[in-house]
Design goal:
Layout: E1 2-9, E2 12-17, H1 27-30, E3 43-49, E4 52-57, E5 60-67, E6 74-79, E7 86-91, E8 103-106, E9 115-122, E10 126-130, E11 136-140, E12 147-152, E13 157-163, H2 167-178, E14 191-194, H3 201-213, E15 220-223, H4 260-266, E16 270-275, H5 282-291, H6 328-333, E17 335-340, E18 353-354, E19 358-359, H7 360-363, H8 367-383, E20 388-391, E21 403-405, H9 413-423, E22 430-431, E23 433-434, H10 439-446, E24 451-454, H11 471-484, H12 486-499, E25 504-506, H13 507-510, E26 523-526, E27 530-533, E28 538-540, E29 547-549, E30 561-563, E31 574-577, E32 580-584, E33 598-604, E34 609-615, H14 622-625, E35 629-637, E36 640-643, E37 647-649, E38 653-655, E39 661-663, E40 674-680, E41 686-691, H15 693-696, E42 701-704
Parallel strand pairs: 14-15, 14-24, 15-16, 16-17, 17-20, 20-21, 21-22, 23-24, 33-40
Antiparallel strand pairs: 1-2, 1-3, 2-13, 4-5, 5-6, 6-12, 7-9, 8-11, 9-10, 10-13, 11-12, 18-19, 25-26, 26-27, 27-31, 28-30, 29-31, 32-33, 34-35, 35-36, 35-37, 36-42, 38-39, 40-41
C-alpha cells in the first residue's frame, strides 16, 4: 500500500493512502467542492510503501498511522496531546462545542445531524479535513483518551492536514482548501420573514405593507410551498398557484404593476420562494468535469457498458437540463432568493444510482453542497448577480455557495450550539427559525449571523401577541437595531470572505489560550466588538477584557458571573468590548435601496482598536472577481480616532424595477459619507462630533477623545 504526502501550500499538507487499482479519488475535488491545488501543482514530499506519516511544523509533531486492514474503507489513528481541545465538525451535534472525548458519526440525517462538516480543529492550531463523502466516524478520544481515530467502511484514506499557529490561523488556511464564505446580497444581512403558508397574494401583500406601516424593518419576504400549484412539487414543471398567487404570463414576465412581485420590490422588499428538490445534479457535474482539462475523470463505482439502453427510474430529472433552468422564469417573475428545504438533502435514497454511476452512499453527504453550488452558479450565470440561497444541510464547500439555517427545530440553546459549531468550521452565514412572541427569542434571532423569522403555519406575527408581553415593541427594537448594524455586519461578512473568521465567534475562538470557556454554549461574540448570549441567562463575563453595557452605556463593574433578567424589550445581555469601534447607520424600513449619507462611529475607549469599513455594489461578484470594492480604515490609538481616506473603487448598481438590478452606466462611486463620531464615557454619557467626508477625503483626519 502506497503512502503519499504532498505540500499544497505553506502550512497545508495532503496525505493519501489507498490502492489505486481498487479505489479512486473522492468526487469532492473533482466537483470543485474543495480545492486540493490552492497554489497550483502540489509539491510531493514522499511516496513510499508503508502506513505511517509524520508532519512537524509550528512546534508540534503530528504522527499518523494509516490502516490498510479495511478492504472496503480506511482506518486512521493519531496520538493526541494532553493540550489538544477539539472543535469544529459543524451541525453533527448540538450538545457540545468542545468535542474531545466524543464520538461523531459524519452522516447527514434529518434533525439529528443536518450539517456534518468533516473539519476537526485543535486548540493548538492543527486541523484535519477528511476528503471523504462516505459516512465515516470520528472518535475524538472517547475510546482511547490519547488517540484520534477516524474510520469508514467505504472510500479512500485522503486527508488534508492544516498546520496553523492557532485556531484563527487554522481557519484561514482551511479556507484555501474548502473555500471562503460567500458574501450574500445586501438584503440578506437584514431580516427575512417567511410567511404563513395559508397566505394568498392579498394577505401576503397587505402584511408586507403592515410591516412598513408599523415601523418594523424587514428586507425579504418568503413564501412557503403553497405558492406552487402542486403542493411540494419537486419537478421542473412547477407553476404558480394561480388561485393564490396569480402571475399573468400572457402580459410578459415584467408586467409592471400587474404581478405582485413587482409591487413587493417597489416597496423595497425581496421575494424568496420555497423549493423542494430530488433532482439528480450529477449529470451536470459529470458534463462540467469532462470540459475541465485538469480533471481526472476516472472510473465510476458502477459502470456496465452493455446496458446501452436504460430504463429511467427517476421521473423528475431531465438528464440534459440543469436544475436551475426551470427556475429562470421565477427569477423573471421577481424572485431573487430561494429557501432550499430538506427533502432529498436529508433523506437516504439507497437504491438510487446518481448519473447512472454513483451509489447513494457516496453521494448522500455532499448532495447538499452540489445543490447549493448549482443554485449559486445558475443564478449568477443568468443574472450576473448574487442570489440569496439558504439550506438546512451542509458539507464541505457549502459555505462558498449558500447560507444555512438550523432546519425544522425552532430556536433553542441546541440550535444556538449548532450555529457555533458551524462557526468553528469557518461557515459564517448561519441562522435558525426565530419565534416572534417574546424578547428572549428576538435577542437570539436578531443577533444571529443572519436573521430569519419563520411563520410556517403559525400566526406568528408580532402584532398578534398580547400587548402585555410587549412582543411587538421588542420586535421593533431588535429589527431597528439589526438595520442599524448593517455597516458593521457587512464589513464582518467581508472579513469572513477573506479570512474565514466567522461573524458569530464562540468564546474559545476568541480566547484561544484558555479552556475555561469550552463549555460556555450560550455566549458568543458578534464580530470583535459585541458580547451577547442566547436563551440561557447564566452569564460568565470574560475577565480578559473590560466591557460597556450597550443598553445603559455604562462601563460594566460587576461580578464575573451573574444571572441576567430579561425585560419585555431586551431578551439577553449585550455588551461592547472596551477598545471597540462600531459603525452604525440610521435604521431604515428596508436595506434594498437604502444608502445613507451619514454613518455613526461609536467609540468605546479602553484599548487601541481598528475597524475597516467595507463597501461594494451590494449586488454583483465584482468584489471577488475584479477586486472592485472600497475600504475605509478607522483607528483608535491613545484616545485619538483617525479616519483614513477611502481606498479602492467599485461601479454602482441600481435597482431599476422589479428584480432588474443593473449597473448604472456611471463608473462613479457614491460619495464618501459624513461621520458622526460618538465617544462613550464610563458613566454612560456620550459626546458627539461631526467629521464631514471632506475632512478625510485627501488625508487622515483625527478626532480626540472628549
Amino acid at each position: 500500500m502506497m503512502t503519499e504526502m504532498y505540500k499544497l501550500a505553506e502550512g497545508i499538507y495532503r496525505i493519501k493512502h489507498w490502492d489505486y487499482k481498487k479505489k479512486r479519488e473522492s468526487l469532492m475535488p473533482k466537483y470543485k467542492l474543495i480545492n486540493v491545488k490552492p497554489e497550483g501543482e502540489a509539491e510531493k514530499i514522499f511516496a513510499e510503501e508503508g502506513n505511517t506519516a509524520v508532519i512537524r511544523e509550528n512546534g508540534y509533531e503530528l504522527a499518523f498511522t494509516l490502516g490498510d486492514d479495511y478492504d472496503g474503507g480506511f482506518d486512521l489513528r493519531m496520538p493526541l496531546d494532553p493540550a489538544d481541545r477539539l472543535f469544529g465538525l459543524g451541525d453533527v451535534t448540538r450538545n457540545t462545542l468542545q468535542h474531545r472525548g466524543k464520538i461523531m458519526r459524519m452522516q447527514i440525517e434529518n434533525v439529528h445531524s443536518y450539517g456534518p462538516i468533516p473539519y476537526l480543529m485543535s486548540s493548538r492550531g492543527w486541523a484535519i479535513i477528511v476528503n471523504c463523502s462516505y459516512v465515516h466516524t470520528i472518535d475524538a478520544g472517547a475510546t482511547n483518551p490519547d488517540e484520534l481515530h477516524i474510520w469508514s467502511d467505504e472510500g479512500a484514506l485522503d486527508i488534508i492536514v492544516i498546520c496553523g499557529k492557532n485556531m484563527q490561523d487554522a481557519l484561514y488556511l482551511q479556507g484555501k482548501v474548502t473555500g471562503r464564505p460567500t458574501m450574500m446580497p445586501k438584503q440578506f444581512y437584514g431580516l427575512t420573514v417567511v410567511h404563513n403558508e395559508a397566505a394568498d397574494v392579498h394577505s401576503f401583500m397587505h402584511d408586507a405593507l403592515r410591516y412598513k406601516e408599523r415601523d418594523l424593518p424587514v428586507d425579504t419576504f418568503g413564501l412557503e410551498p403553497t405558492w406552487m400549484e402542486r403542493f411540494y412539487d419537486d419537478s421542473t414543471d412547477k407553476k404558480w398557484d394561480y388561485n393564490r398567487f396569480p402571475i399573468w404570463d400572457w402580459m410578459g414576465p415584467h408586467a409592471y404593476g400587474a404581478n405582485f412581485p413587482y409591487n413587493l420590490n417597489q416597496m423595497g422588499y425581496s421575494l424568496c420562494l420555497w423549493l423542494n428538490c430530488s433532482y439528480d445534479f450529477f449529470w451536470k457535474e459529470e458534463e462540467d468535469m469532462k470540459k475541465d482539462a485538469d480533471a481526472d475523470y476516472g472510473d465510476a463505482v458502477i459502470k456496465d457498458k452493455h446496458l446501452t439502453y436504460v430504463r429511467r427510474t427517476d421521473p423528475v430529472t431531465k438528464k440534459d437540463e440543469p436544475w436551475f433552468e426551470h427556475l429562470k422564469k421565477f427569477v423573471d417573475n421577481g424572485a431573487d432568493a430561494f429557501k432550499m428545504d430538506g427533502n432529498t438533502q436529508v433523506t437516504p435514497c439507497p437504491d438510487h444510482i446518481w448519473a447512472d454511476k454513483y451509489t447513494d452512499a457516496e453521494i448522500r453527504n455532499m448532495y447538499c453542497a452540489v445543490y447549493a453550488k448549482q443554485m449559486k452558479e445558475g443564478y449568477e450565470e443568468y443574472t450576473g448577480r448574487r442570489g440569496m440561497f439558504y439550506t438546512p444541510s451542509a458539507y464541505l464547500g457549502t459555505q462558498k455557495y449558500a447560507a444555512t439555517w438550523a432546519g425544522d427545530t425552532g430556536g433553542s440553546i441546541a440550535s444556538h450550539v449548532s450555529l457555533m459549531n458551524y462557526s468553528m468550521c469557518g461557515h459564517a452565514n448561519c441562522s435558525f427559525d426565530m419565534y416572534a412572541g417574546n424578547a428572549v427569542a428576538h435577542h437570539a434571532g436578531f443577533l444571529a449571523p443572519w436573521a430569519q423569522h419563520m411563520g410556517w403555519a403559525n400566526w406568528d406575527l408580532p402584532w398578534f401577541f398580547n400587548t402585555d408581553t410587549h412582543a411587538e415593541e421588542s420586535y421593533r427594537w431588535y429589527a431597528k437595531f439589526r438595520s442599524a448594524l448593517f455597516p458593521y455586519l457587512y464589513s464582518l461578512a467581508h472579513e469572513a470572505n477573506t479570512t474565514s473568521m466567522p461573524l458569530m465567534r464562540p468564546l474559545p475562538l476568541v480566547y484561544m489560550d484558555t479552556d475555561k470557556y469550552d463549555r460556555v454554549h450560550n455566549e458568543f461574540m458578534l464580530g470583535g466588538a459585541f458580547l451577547a448570549n442566547a436563551w440561557d441567562m447564566n452569564i460568565i463575563m470574560p475577565e480578559e477584557d473590560e466591557w460597556y453595557d450597550f443598553y445603559t452605556g455604562k462601563k460594566y463593574d460587576g461580578p464575573s458571573r451573574f444571572t441576567f433578567k430579561p425585560d419585555f424589550i431586551h431578551g439577553g445581555v449585550l455588551y461592547v468590548k472596551a477598545g471597540s469601534i462600531v459603525v452604525l447607520q440610521d435604521p431604515h424600513y428596508s436595506l434594498r435601496n437604502y444608502r445613507p449619507d451619514k454613518l455613526y462611529i461609536h467609540v468605546y475607549p479602553g484599548k487601541d482598536a481598528q475597524f475597516t469599513l467595507y463597501e461594494d455594489d451590494f449586488w454583483s461578484y465584482a468584489y471577488e472577481k475584479k477586486g472592485e470594492f472600497a475600504t475605509t480604515k478607522i483607528e483608535l490609538k491613545d484616545n485619538v480616532l483617525t479616519v483614513y481616506p477611502r481606498e479602492g473603487s467599485f461601479k454602482p448598481y441600481q435597482d431599476i424595477h422589479r428584480n432588474r438590478i443593473s449597473p448604472t452606466g456611471d463608473d462613479t462611486m457614491p460619495a464618501p459619507v459624513d461621520f458622526e463620531v460618538v465617544w462613550h464615557h464610563e458613566d454612560g454619557t456620550t459626546v458627539s462630533e461631526m467629521l464631514p467626508a471632506s475632512a478625510y477625503a485627501d488625508g487622515p483626519a483625527a478626532v480626540e477623545y472628549k
